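Quick one - first record:
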Amino acid sequence: MKSISVRNPHSVLEALRRRPQDVQEIHLGEDQPKSLWSEVVSLAEQNRIRVSRGSGADSSKKNRVGRTSIYEAMIVPKAPLSLNEILEAGGSESEGVWFAIDCVQDPHNLGAIFRIAGFFDVRGVILPEDRTAPLSGVAYDVSCGGVEGVPFCQETNLARALRQAKENDFWILGTSEKAEMGLSEVKRDRKWIVVLGNEESGIRENTAKNCDLLCKIPASGPIDSLNVSVAAGIVAYSLSSS
């Protein structure tokens, strides 16, 4: 599998800690490494990973004193798990939160959702194979290590995956600004798969049909909608709070 360029040292460190065999090389800029990149270098050297200086994929970029300033790691993307493995991530627990992504197009939003998932101990993420932003280097960087810490699967048919989840005692919660139920009314005492929709149009009609409930985050100000990753954080906090 082709490697990707990852430039957030938090994300690189998580990859080195969890799967160093997939970190192919570390490229350093010509200036003095900052503290986190020093940790990256130390851990890479412990795992006998090649470290080079001033030879990154974008080494043409210079800082104000004419030195190459790009720091990056070339990493093989993390392999997805199966849907069954994602659904089993909560073990025997009767409560928990999972995310399902429905046509989120911006890799920055996708990365932010993974960062939120890692922060709130979301058990897994279900990704469609099509019509969703890829897990690119940008998504890895924005996730700040979240992609490494949160298991995910990639499904050809999201609606079918949700139906399978319901057969395994999951409840499906769709997020929609058009819903009548507020988030505060949603019970916490079950395993929820929270469906997060497209930045412009929300969740698709066919996806909504497979949701047990639709809920919204009520606005208290003049702005009536939220960025999808912000909404993901609010929902995850609400459902994971006692």
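second record:
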Amino acid sequence: MELAFLGSGAAFSLERYNGAIVVDRRLLLDGGAPLLPHLHRLGIDPGGIEAVLITHFHGDHLLGLPPFMLHRAFIDPRPLRIVGPPRVEATLEQLFELCWGPEWPDFRARFELTYAEAGQSGTVAGVSYETVPLKHGGNTVTGYRLRLGGQLLAYSGDTEATPALDQLVEGTDAAIVEATGPGEPMSHTSWEQAAELAARHPRTRFFFNHVYAGSPPDAVSDFQVVTV
């Protein structure tokens, strides 16, 4: 399993780009900006992305997607499926219409774009998954447990360190979890809580992201590519 971290920062980090992760060069986990230049920098074909999995609808997880849609429409019109929380289609269509105005329906018609609400479980691009609802302030975030071959990958998006986060990472081979900052970052997981989580799950390899500043232990960096 290959994990390519296009960005590893919190929403208003000055040191890191917004988060987006590519799994095995074909699944995109969230879509923080700038997405297309970072795919190109790591030699990942934007047209090879078969599916996008969205955890929640905050800007630092979405704003790389509108230019990505135009690349698929005009450069490489292979089919694309987007999976996400309830109202994923209505929410993203509103975003794309805001960005591209009345021309968006014509752009969308140039390639096959489909949506699916994640639900409790499903399959996308041949990968089966289960979801765990996570708490992020007043939002419910869709955490994913992805089965890739014989491996199990957890991805939290943004979350507080609740018992549901332990449920998400339990028994996984690898887990991508946020670690925003030290102390008590509002509606996020702290460095200390992230370390405690890792200690409770010693068989899981952790990759901490959504870092505001500095670098906690086991934090990934922008443009890091790892094989698990």
